[in-house]
Amino acid sequence: MSRAVTVANLSKNYGRIKALDDISFEVDEREIFGFLGPNGAGKTTAIKIMLGLTRAAKGHVEIFGIDVQSKPDKARENIGYVSQNLSLSNEITGYENLLISAKLYGVPSSIRKSRITEIMDLLGIQNRADDLVKKYSGGMMRRLEIGAALVHRPKLLILDEPTIGLDPQIRLVVRELLRRLVNEFGITIFLTTHDMGEADELCEKIAIINNGRIGVVGTPTNLKRSVGGDTIQFDTKEPEKAVSILTGKFGVTKPIAKNNTISMIVNTAETILPLLINTLARAGVIVDAIHSHRPTLDDVFLKYAGSRLAEVEREGDYRHVKEVRRTFRRMR
Amino acid sequence: MFTILEKTAVILELELRKMKHDQSDLLIRAIQPVLWLTIFGSVFRQFRQLPIGDVSYLSFITPGVLAQSVLFIAIFTGVSLVWERDLGQLDRLLAAPAPRTSIVLGKAFSGGVKGLFQAGVIFAIAFVMGVDLIPNPIYILGVIGVVFVFGVCFSSMSIFVTTLLNTRERVMGMMQLLTMPLFFASNALYPIEIMPRWLQIVSLINPMSYVVEALRALMITGDLSRLPIALGGMAIATFIFIGAAALAFRRVGR
Ligand SMILES: Nc1ncnc2c1ncn2[C@@H]1O[C@H](COP(=O)(O)OP(=O)(O)O)[C@@H](O)[C@H]1O
Ligand SMILES: [Mg+2]
């Protein structure tokens, strides 16, 4: 398998902000590689450097062996880019947008038309080809955007938050489309997301990124396994007593009490849950509510980035989603 | 070199396709010149002592009004560029394997072409209002050339300024600050001779004056004696602004 992307020791500052702090990773051909991190983590900055749009302070990027800094145009011929904003022109038709992209990327005139028709079919928007983009729904715009990035048959598709601001069922459509591109056309995909469900479901490999640093890179399965086991959480009115009873038993980690909630990581929750409840009952500690979950990428994020994704996320993410939604509306 | 021209043509095509779908813009832009010609043209007709030669005042200001409306269109080129950058539409062009200069050139040329459409509209209005236009096709070709180059020149200036200013608010303010003096401190509405001395100097270094002079010669007076100076001045300004815009644009998004 050959290498699609090599990023080595990339750093970038905006004034005093360290947008990227010495990140390195590699993407193999025909793989879906995801950057998972909250708003402001440095995802877009990394993409801009990979495209040669922004200069890095330090470091090196190669796309299919081509150095981006010294030969940006040559490198870009292999890349399709879908930015986090909607970058299509809404005042012209979907067909015209693809036509302009085809010309920009130097698709020969003899095959332009058939190429565009093919993409319209693939996206399932062939019957809306001659409508102005401002009349499209958000999901159609996003699909067209991906289509515009495909007209020159790039070997690598880079997508910045491809499903942000979309309804859940349309997210599924977009994800399905991306998977098809890899399976049927052998494209390599690099994407960013702040949605751990999406990263988990779609990506073969994930880099956890926070505050401009990559915490860890791996497959979702391996990353979750590296957390060490399932999490058990329960509520009780006697947390100290419960902790002292459970310490050294069952757990991979020491039980941690927060208010009246106790959480601990165990090997397999199914077998340990009944034992744990029995042990506590025999000591007279009543469990009010209990639940367990398999490790999630949020647990992975906690382990390698030092915080819960959901916690860093909420405020900034909400603003970002609102912004994208506003653009969708403004485009109409 | 070939790639630059090729990609410039694509950017120009994109702009023209946008214009094709939104012709209301063209109509709205026709309103202002009509107002200028009808109101200003008829009010100032009273001042018979204006030293404008043996043409009517309406004829005198028609080239000025044409130059002004092309100026507005050209100035808007930079504004729309900043707008597109903020929307994220520029990202797509920047990420394509196209030299940045071709984006600048394509946008600037689109300003020139839009200026031509505007010229068509103003010719029609002037004709209806009974302005004595020189019907010689060679002169009309000359007008087309001057309007196009003027549009390109001031679109480049506008791209240069907006790229330097960076934020949309500053750009809007600056553009307003720029257009009014360019227009009023020129020979568009009154001959230079009647201006106070200081304004005469301003108007001599004001590129608008050269454009208006060239247009006036080609559309109304037919006196081409000063045309070479006007064209020379325009050519120099155009090269300078295109160069400045292309240089400034290299920094965008970095
Ligand atoms: N053009 C810029 N000027 C100043 N700061 C920037 C700029 N672009 C990004 N940043 C900062 O760099 C950090 C990373 O931003 P970004 O790469 O956009 O994150 P993400 O895409 O993960 O949300 C943030 O703190 C952001 O505020
Ligand atoms: Mg981002």
Question: What does this protein look like?
Answer:
The complex is a heterodimer of chains A (332) and B (254). Chain A is of the alpha/beta class. Chain A has 2 domains: 3-218, P-loop containing nucleotide triphosphate hydrolases (Rossmann fold); 229-294, 2-Layer Sandwich (Alpha-Beta Plaits), CATH 3.30.70.260. Helix content of chain A is 41%, strand content 26%. Chain A has 12 helices and 14 strands. Chain A has a 6-stranded mixed β-sheet with strand order 6-7-8-3-9-10, sandwiched between helices. A 4-stranded antiparallel β-sheet of chain A has the order 2-1-4-5. A 4-stranded antiparallel β-sheet of chain A has the order 12-13-11-14, with helices on one face. Chain B has one domain (24-43, 52-249). Chain B has 10 helices and no strands. Chain B has helices at residues 2-21, 24-44, 57-87, 89-94, 100-128, 137-165, 168-184, 197-205, 207-221, 227-249. The A-B interface holds A 48, 51, 53-55, 72-74, 76-77, 79, 81, 83-89, 91-93, 96, 100-101, 103-106, 132, 148, 327, 330 and B 6-7, 10, 13-14, 17-18, 21-22, 87-99, 253-254. Bound molecules: adenosine-5'-diphosphate (ADP) and magnesium ion.
